[in-house]
Amino acid sequence: MTEMRFETKAPAGLPENKAATFGTEAVLDEFGRAFEAFKEANDARLCEIETRLTADVVTEEKLARIDAALDQAKNRLDRISLDRARPPLGGAEPPRDASATEHKAAFDLYVRAGESAGLKRLEEKALSAGSGPDGGYLVPSTIEREVLRRLAEISPIRAIATVRVVSGGHYKRAVSVNGPAAGWVAETAPRPQTDAPSLSELSFPAMELYAMPAATQTLLDDAVLDIDAWLAEEVETAFAEQESVAFVTGNGVGRPKGFLSYDTVANASWGAGKLGFVATGAAGAFPASNPTDVLFDLIYALRAGYRQGASFVMNRRVQSAIRKFKDADGNYLWQPPLAADRAATLMGFPLVEAEAMPDLSAGSHSIAFGDFKRGYLVVDRVGLRTLRDPYSAKPYVLFYTTKRVGGGVQDFDAIKLLRFA
C-alpha cells in the first residue's frame, strides 16, 4: 500500500476563510477511510490466526503500513488544528493601553537594533530589579500570552493539566492527608470533639526553561517582520518539547517533577503520596488472552468522581498496539477523532499522545489514566524575558529567551498507571 498523501490546498476561487475547513474535511475523510482499511486488514489478520494459528507476513506488513498512515493523518490533523487556532496575519489587534503600546515599541527597537534605553526607562518606572546584562528584558504581555496559548495547544500534559500563574518562585498549597472526622448525631445528643485533619504542604518551585532562537540582522531590519509572531513561533516548539518530557519523567532537579517520577504502589495498597498501578500480569506486554480486561481494570481503579474528566495518556507505539483490540461484540476500542481539534478515543475516553511516555517493556508504566486536571499542576512564573546577543554567533543575532515553569502531582488519587509486569 502506497503512502497516503492529503491535499489541503483550497481550489481556485474558494474564499480564504473556507480553505482551512476544506482541508480539514479532506483530511478527516481520508483518515476515516484509512481506519476502515485498517480494520479490514486487522480482521483478515485475526482470521488467519484463527484458521492457521499464524498471520501471513504480507498481511502483517500491510497492517503496519496502514497503521503508519493513520499516525501521519493524525499528525496532519494536529497541525491543521494548531494552524486554525493561530490568529490570522494582519488581523485586528486588541486595543492596548498607552503603557503596553510604549513597551511594545521599545521592545521592537531593542530586538531590531539592540537599543535598550527605552526598556531600561520602562523598567525603572516599574521599579523592576531586572537588568539587561544580567537577565534580559521582559517581553510585552502580548508575546507572553501568545507563547502560553501556543504551548497549551501543542504540549500534551499542559493541555489537560491545571495551570496556575504565580508571581513568586514557589507555589505552595496545603492538602489534607486523611480528611476531617465526621459523624451522625441525634438532634439533642452531645457533639463530641472530632479529630483534626492531618495537613501536608505541597511545594512546586518554578524552574528556568530557555530557548535561543537566531536571526540575521537583515531579517530583523525588515520592517514587514512581525516581531511578536516571530519570537512566539521560534520558542514555542523548543519550550513544548522540553515541557512534554519534564511533565512526564522530570526528576524535579532543575526541572518540573513528572508524574512517572513519583513512588508507585499496587493500587490495592494505595496510600497518600504515591501513585497506584494495576499490573497486566505479563512482563512488557498485554496478557495473551483477553488483553482488554486490564484496560477495564485500569479504568475502574479510578474512583467514579475522577472518571468524569479522565483521559488515557500513552505514546504512539503503545497506541498502535491498542488499535488492534476489540470488545466482546467485535467493535474496535480505539476510535478516530471526529474533528481536527478533537482527540481519538479509547473505550469512550479521550486519548492523549505523549511521546515522553515509555514504550512497552518489563516493569514499564506505559499507560496512564486519570483526571489530570485535578491530578497534575503546572505552575507558570509570570514574565517571559529575552536577552539580545549579537556577539556569540556572528553573523546571527541570538535571543536568549527564558520562562520559569514548575509542575508536579497535586492529587495522587486522580492518576492511575498500567504496569506491564
What's a quick, concise take on this entry?
The chain is an alpha+beta fold and 421 residues long. The protein contains 13 helices and 16 strands. Strands 7-8-16-13-9-12-11-10 form an eight-stranded mixed β-sheet. Strands 1, 2, 5, 6, 14 and 15 form a six-stranded mixed β-sheet that branches. Strands 3-4 form a two-stranded antiparallel ribbon.
Key features?
single chain, 421 residues, alpha+beta, hypothetical protein PF0899 fold, eight-stranded mixed sheet, six-stranded mixed sheet, 13 helices, flat, disordered N terminus
The H-and-E topology, N to C, reads as HHHHHEHHEEEEEHHEEHHEHEEEEHEEE
The major sheet is characterized as: 8 strands, mixed
How would you name the CATH homologous superfamily of the domain at 259-376 and 412-419?
A: hypothetical protein PF0899 domain
Based on CA atoms alone, the radius of gyration comes out at 26 Å
**End-to-end separation:** 36 Å
Q: What is the residue-mean pLDDT, rounded to a whole number?
A: 80
Q: The CATH topology of the domain at 259-376 and 412-419 is what?
A: hypothetical protein PF0899 fold
Number of helices: 13
- Determine the structural class based on helices, strands and strand pairing: alpha+beta
Strand percentage: 15-25%
Oligomer: single chain
**Outline:** flat
Count of beta strands = 16
CATH structural class of the domain at 259-376 and 412-419? Alpha Beta
Strand order of the largest sheet: 7-8-16-13-9-12-11-10
Instruction: Extract low-pLDDT stretches.
Output: 1-22, 88-92, 127-134
Q: State the CATH architecture of the domain at 259-376 and 412-419.
A: 2-Layer Sandwich
- As a percent range, the share of helical residues equals 25-40%
